[in-house]
Amino acid sequence: MIPVVVMGVSGCGKSTVGALLADRLAVPFLDADSLHPAANLRKMARGAPLDDDDRWPWLHQVGRALAAHPGGAVVACSALRRAYRDVLRDAVPGVRFVHLAGTREQLAARMRAREGHFMPVSLLDTQLATLEQLDDDETGTVLDCTLDPATLAGAAQAWLARPAGLVGVLRTGVDTR
Ligand SMILES: Nc1ncnc2c1ncn2[C@@H]1O[C@H](COP(=O)(O)OP(=O)(O)OP(=O)(O)O)[C@@H](O)[C@H]1O
Ligand SMILES: O=C(O)[C@H](O)[C@@H](O)[C@H](O)[C@H](O)CO
To answer: What molecular function terms (GO) are annotated for this protein (predicted)?
Structure first.
């Protein structure tokens, strides 16, 4: 089974959809948020965005966690920049990305409605500013995060069934502004 990263900014549904997808694929689900060092979590909770130096060690840790499942796994990880995805690709060659994309308004509404989460809505703008869309020479698909979670997991599963060695991004007409 191919290793999968469900990516996107805070609140896009990575954990919700990633867990459903892992169930469908019968592989373990990992949440990269649980691999953040405590200092990163504290930083975000006080309203300060992470920078590259905060993220590199964490991304290597996420890559190692994914590589520890040779039978495949699904990890929910923001993977906002191409260089971050490169770290994951180096750790787990062939990894595929499922980007759950939405507009600022859709994402902000989600984050506001969510209770008991460390991430403040005020960090959404820096998340969106940091986000680099999947490039055409990456291997991934972009899905509309406002579809219902089961539909999204099904769409991701269908795309993952495409042949190994696939390169390119399947965009499904999502508004990513
Ligand atoms: N497809 C969806 N449709 C409607 N609501 C959703 C959907 N996916 C997730 N949600 C809800 O949106 C909120 C954010 O979802 P979730 O925690 O899965 O996102 P996330 O990307 O993992 O966020 P973070 O990275 O900030 O932890 C939750 O309250 C969740 O129940
Ligand atoms: O790279 C990042 O800035 C982080 O991974 C964030 O995206 C959060 O961990 C997550 O989304 C919590 O809301």
So the answer is: ATP binding; gluconokinase activity
Q: Where are the domains of the chain?
A: 4-171
Amino acid at position 159, single letter:
W
Note the pLDDT of residue 114.
Answer: 87
CA distances from 97 to 53, 65, 67, 80, 94 (A): 23, 16, 15, 11, 10
Q: Is this complex's ipTM strictly greater than 0.90?
A: yes
Q: pLDDT tens-digit profile of 77-95?
A: 999 999 999 999 999 999 9
Taking the C-alpha atoms of residue 161 and residue 64, their distance in angstroms, rounded to an integer, is 24
Contact of 63 with 77, CB cutoff 8 Å: no
Q: Token pair for residue 62?
A: 């996420």
CB 73 within 8 A of CB 3: yes
Q: Residue 168 belongs to what H/E stretch?
A: strand 168-171
Residue with tokens 């191919």: 2
More confident: 168 or 106 = 106
The model carries a pTM of: 0.95
Runs of H (alpha helix) within 92-148: 104-113, 124-130
Ligand 2 contact, 174 CB (< 6 A) = no
157 Cα to the center of ligand 1, angstroms: 18
DSSP, collapsed to helix, strand or coil, labels residue 34 as helix
Q: Classify domain 4-171 at the CATH topology level.
A: Rossmann fold (3.40.50)
